[in-house]
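RESIDUES AND SHAPES:
===
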Amino acid sequence: MWYIGIDVHKKMCNACIKDREGNILRELKFPNKSTGTDKLLEPDTRHP
């Protein structure tokens, strides 16, 4: 199970994805637009 936190601002968003133990798997910053949220859904090749 993963936990995702998203901090939404007017122009940008920050997101953090953690595993069950609280280890950070991914942190990202993206524009507050549909193209930015697509980045959140992209697979991360660093973590299977």
